[in-house]
Specification:
By secondary structure, the chain is of the alpha+beta class. It is 44% helix and 19% strand.
């Protein structure tokens, strides 16, 4: 990581997002927070305890400047603008962030699904049968997934011991989710 930092990746993700927004136009702090919420579609709700220290650090590193707007009809606002040094930092950092995204994309491509099944309207009985069938099949040397889930193609799974097992029960967007993850090293 230190080599990447020396080559220009000095801006962390929050700082980079702030600089990218400020490259569009100067904004005050609360406006930056709202804009980030909008851009992340609610998946990230930036907090003042994250944004203002990042802005202070950017200002102390001369990446942004600020000016205070004194208002009679409300609290004063501190407006931030990107400096030339900040614009250069964006250019340098973006090269490295793009390379990181390429690495992540390559990782995703190598983990692309061979077979994927999704059903939004399954009932508990149907799901219970599926899980029991899957459990019984795992005890054999070969699982023929098409006997458990519908598919046009024949998919054989050959689980071997040991099997890694992860269980996640989570709440996301007011929905409760259950994730099961089984992993093993395939023998060729």
């Amino acid at each position: 990581m230190s080599k990447a930092r020396n080559k220009g990746m000095r801006a962390g993700a929050v700082s980079l997002w702030l600089m990218l927004l400020l490259s569009e136009r100067p904004m005050y702090g609360y406006e930056l927070i709202r804009e980030l919420e909008k851009r992340f579609s609610g998946y990230w709700k930036p907090q003042t305890g994250t944004i203002y220290p990042a802005l202070d650090k950017l200002q102390s590193n001369k990446m942004v400047t600020s000016r205070r707007e004194f208002r009679e009809d409300g609290p004063d606002r501190k407006h931030y603008a990107l400096t030339e040094k900040g614009r250069n930092e964006i250019k340098q950092s973006m090269v490295h962030w793009i390379k990181m995204m390429e690495v992540l994309e390559n990782y995703r491509e190598t983990h692309k699904a061979i077979y994927r099944y999704k059903k939004d309207d399954a009932d508990k009985g149907e799901l219970g049968k599926l899980l029991v069938d899957l459990g019984r099949s795992l005890q054999n040397n070969t699982v023929e997934i098409t006997k458990i889930l519908p598919s046009k193609d024949k998919h054989l799974i050959k689980p071997v011991n040991p099997i890694g097992f992860k269980f996640l029960y989570a709440k996301e967007n007011n929905k409760l989710e259950l994730h099961l993850d089984l992993q093993w090293i395939s023998k060729k």
